[in-house]
Amino acid sequence: MPTAKAPMSTPHDPFSPSTMRDLQRPVTRAPQRPCLFIDKDGTLVENLPHNTDPLLLRFLPGAGQALARLQAAGLALVIVTNQSGLARGYFTRAEFARLQQVLLQRLQEEHGVRIDGVEVCPHGPDSDGRPACLCRMPAPGMLIRAAHRHGVDLKRSWLVGDTLDDVEAGHRAGAGGLLLDSGAETIWRRSPLREPDARFFDWEALADYVQKMADGPAHTPVEWLPRPPTGYTSALSAG
């Protein structure tokens, strides 16, 4: 008699929506790891709005080397990215998936970095520019969803991005929020949730900070952070 075939597993769909039930479900995987959540455009790669051409992908200086260090130190690495161009019809999911595949392949081949997960928000903002879903940053849905999927301890994790919306998303998820100041933030709309735990101008200094802090306790309020190492400015002294 023929043997029954095992059911095929369904690959993770980075576009799958976050539901309130998903976001409220407790994380039960153990042991939980610290994670660096990485905004894609303007943080990991040069910001070319709505680009889906793999030939135009350019990593920011030092990004690949920094991620290799942090992965070797035991951190999970998850890319989180708003892609409103999908909702606006600027490109298709297949085109973005092809770009994502090349991005992950290059990180692995050029830097030995294996990304644990990619979370994508395919929705556009509302008429006032605010999230109209649970996952568009500064909403925390992508981070919470990734924490469930990858056994991440949000209290020992950080989101790094190039705008204060990214910082806010990290804080709303219960993680840290780090600003890689590449000039993308021009409005500087302030609130307690939008104050970076630390502000950096290069990936090497950011990796130094995260590697040091990952060995410590859960996030300490910013006013009690230890004296910063050379290369970043804390939120208290940022202009």
From TrEMBL:
Where, per UniProt, does this protein localize? Cytoplasm
Q: Specify the superkingdom.
A: Bacteria
Q: So what family is this one in?
A: Belongs to the GmhB family.
Q: What is this protein called?
A: D,D-heptose 1,7-bisphosphate phosphatase
Map out region (Disordered) in residue numbers: 1-26
Q: Does the keyword Coiled coil apply?
A: no
Q: Which PANTHER family match?
A: D-GLYCERO-BETA-D-MANNO-HEPTOSE-1,7-BISPHOSPHATE 7-PHOSPHATASE
InterPro entries in UniProt: HAD-like_sf (IPR036412), HAD-SF_hydro_IIIA (IPR006549), HAD_sf (IPR023214), Heptose_bisP_phosphatase (IPR004446), Histidinol-phos (IPR006543)
Q: Does the keyword Hydrolase apply?
A: yes
| Main location (coarse class) | cytoplasm
Q: Which UniProt keywords apply?
A: Carbohydrate metabolism, Cytoplasm, Hydrolase, Metal-binding
Organism of derivation: Roseateles saccharophilus
